[in-house]
Amino acid sequence: MSASVTLLDYGGGNTGSMARALARVGAEVRVAVRGTDVAEHDRLVLPGVGHFGTVMEALRERGLDEAIRRHVGAGRPFLGVCVGLQVLCDASDEAPGVPGLGLVPGRVVRFQAPKVPQVGFNRVEPTRPGRVLTPGYFYFVNSYHAVPADPSAVAATAEYGVRFAAAVEVGAMLAVQFHPEKSGPAGLAMLERWLAC
Amino acid sequence: MLTKRIIPCLDVRGGRVVKGTRFVALRDAGDPVTLATRYESEGADELFFLDITASAQARGILIGVVRAVAERVFIPFGVGGGLRTLEDMAAVLRAGAEKVSLNTAAVEDPGLVARAAAAFGSQAVVVAIDARARPSGGWEVVTHGGRRPTGMDAVAWARRAVEAGAGELLVTSMDCDGVQRGYDLALYQTLAAEVPVPVIASGGAGGVEDIRAVLCEGRADAALAASIFHFGAWTVRDVKARLVAMGVPVRPPDREA
Q1: Which of A172, B25, B142, B168 makes the best surface tag, with the fewest CB within 10 Å?
Q2: d(CA B214, CA B57)
């Protein structure tokens, strides 16, 4: 039995890469460009590449913000990636004054490192045993990182000048700062485990 | 911690991978998709495709290569060579590349870097710089595949490209490229001190010690190499295993053969 996944397309993300990776590990992928396209019983994936403010604006315009809130509120499986993690927070220094989805209380701040963005594979360490996240190297491209108000929301960390949230997890809502669709075999294996749980 | 990247580079002409010595004398090194999947399975962190024909009719072939690679490869890859307009770049990114690199077109119109960064995000925009050492010291930017000196200082251009929105720099030493006698360490040390974005070093890898040196002493964030991988002198897996043994922070290759 293959898992059905709805991939949210807000116009700017790397929807194609994520669709190919999910299909590779056996998912049946549908793409939703409007909130009304979201199939109720699917798993939901919010891929990410882009600016916090632009992405939030696109999500609101397309009614995808409400679709995410409904889906997460119903306790259904959700996976956010990169900026798809960051927009779950309340706000970001990348777009002052633009409210995020507010599903993970906290804010998003810029790295204080000699080189920003961080680009490349970083070592991810889960903070607790789980069914999806494992220790290993995953591909990051980010200038900003989330700082959840409740530290128990942090499911994995990595280090880049500071130890930062590489993944947040609250109930069935999982979001990762790295790109599993671009992390080689380790990333595909993570997506496969997420589809199976 | 963030690891240093090993990036095999595939020079593509007419849909095939080629690699020359000092940009001439091309030898055929194979099918791009076959090579790309091999490098991924050996533990490459990223791939770069440079279209060295860069003519309008070659563009269609290149897009086909990008699409085929994206279907099979699940690590990031960049594409460069003759991209001159936002439409060129959008086509490559839509076909599945993560990044585009701009070289001559950026020198001729630095505004193109800013427009690309605004359209696609800085993370997708790599400015490629071909640099040649000056007898008097420093480095000069050369364009058109190494054929045209510009008189511009390479370090000053690097700073300006970053200000315009480049998210990374791919810097090739023209003096070292293809001769496999080591990277120009002074060039990368200077850039590391001068620019706040990652620098990919290119040109000169003859063995693991050269790669170690440019990542450590040269302070480059990534090492790009072609010749040593294509012709089987080294596999990516061997290079990474040796770098791990030398204490260089790289993503270790998978355990299985």
Answers
A1: B25
A2: 37
3-state secondary structure B158-223: HHHHHHHCCCEEEEEECCCCCCCCCCCHHHHHHHHHHCCCCEEEECCCCCHHHHHHHHCCCCCCEE
Task: Find the closest chain B residue to A163 by CA distance.
Answer: B1
A/B interface, count of CB pairs below 8 Å: 87
H or E segment and range at residue A85: helix A83-86
Most A CBs within 10 Å, among B45, B74, B159, to test the A interface: B74
Maximum Cα–Cα distance across chain B: 50
Structure confidence by residue, pLDDT tens digits, A63-114: 999 999 999 999 999 999 999 999 999 999 999 999 999 999 999 999 999 8
Annotated catalytic residue B51? no
Query: Is there a contact between A110 and A101 (Cβ–Cβ < 8 Å)?
Result: no
Poorest-confidence range of B7-16, B38-47, B127-136? B7-16
CA distance B99 to B101: 7
B186 touches A at CB < 8 Å: no
Q: Respond yes or no: is residue B184 known to be catalytic.
A: no
Catalogue the E-assigned strands of A73-153. 78-81, 91-92, 106-110, 118-126, 136-142, 144-148
Q: CA-to-CA distance for A125 and A114, rounded, in angstroms?
A: 23
**pLDDT at residue B181, rounded to an integer:** 86
Residues in chain A with CB shorter than 8 Å from the CB of B1 are 122-123, 159-160
Strand partners, A141: A119
Which of B101, B195, B251 to mutate: most A Cβ within 10 Å?
B251
Query: Coil, strand or helix: which one is A127?
Result: coil
Cross-strand bridge partners of residue B141? B131
Indicate which residues of A carry an active-site annotation.
Answer: 82, 179, 181
pLDDT at A13 over 90: no
A184 shares contact with chain B (CB less than 8 Å)? yes
Classify each residue of A67-84 as buried b or exposed e, where b means 16 or more C-beta atoms within 10 Å of its C-beta.
bbeebbeeebbbbbbbbb
When CB atoms are compared, the residue of B5, B122, B197 closest to A120 is: B5
B5 vs A: CB within 8 A:
yes
Query: How many Å separate Cα B98 from the centre of its chain?
Result: 13
- Kind of pairing, strands A136-142 and A118-126? antiparallel
**B4 to chain A: closest CA residue:** A120
Query: Active-site residue among B11, B45, B88, B210?
Result: B11
CA angle, B128 then B130 then B131, to 5°: 130
First to last CA, chain B: 25
Yes or no, beta carbons of B198 and A115 under 8 Å apart:
yes
